[in-house]
Amino acid sequence: MRENCIKCESAMVEAKLDSYPIRVYKSTEKVNSKTMSEVSPCYVCSNCGFIELYALNPEKLS
């Protein structure tokens, strides 16, 4: 996680996603538990609102 926003250089703060769990998967893959990763944590810029998300299991997307 970057400590500062990549858009405006202000401080990033850790946040929670309201619709948890959010999951990501490659658009070329069939969706199942082996090809999806949950997204967490979430960081939000305290100035411009830029949101940064991270996959918990990025290896599932390779």
Descriptive report:
Strands 1, 2, 3 and 4 form a four-stranded antiparallel beta sheet that branches. The protein has 62 residues and is mainly β. It contains no helices and four strands. Helix content is 0%, strand content 35%. Strand 3 and strand 4 form a beta hairpin. This is Nucleic-acid-binding Zn-ribbon protein.
Brief description of this entry?
This is Nucleic-acid-binding Zn-ribbon protein. The chain is an all-beta fold and 62 residues long.
Order of helices and strands: EEEE
Mean residue pLDDT: 87
Assign an overall shape: elongated
Helicity range: under 10%
Weakly predicted, low-confidence segments? none
User: How would a crystallographer describe the biggest sheet?
Assistant: 4 strands, antiparallel
Secondary-structure content class: mainly beta
Q: Count the helices. How many?
A: 0
Ends: how far apart? 21 Å
β-strand percent reads 35-45%
- The radius of gyration computed from the alpha-carbon positions, rounded to a whole number of angstroms, is 13 Å
**How many E-type strands?**
4
Protein name: Nucleic-acid-binding Zn-ribbon protein
Which keywords apply here?
Nucleic-acid-binding Zn-ribbon protein; mainly beta; 62 residues
Which SSEs are present, and which pair or pack?
Layout: E1 12-15, E2 23-25, E3 36-45, E4 51-55
Antiparallel strand pairs: 1-3, 2-3, 3-4
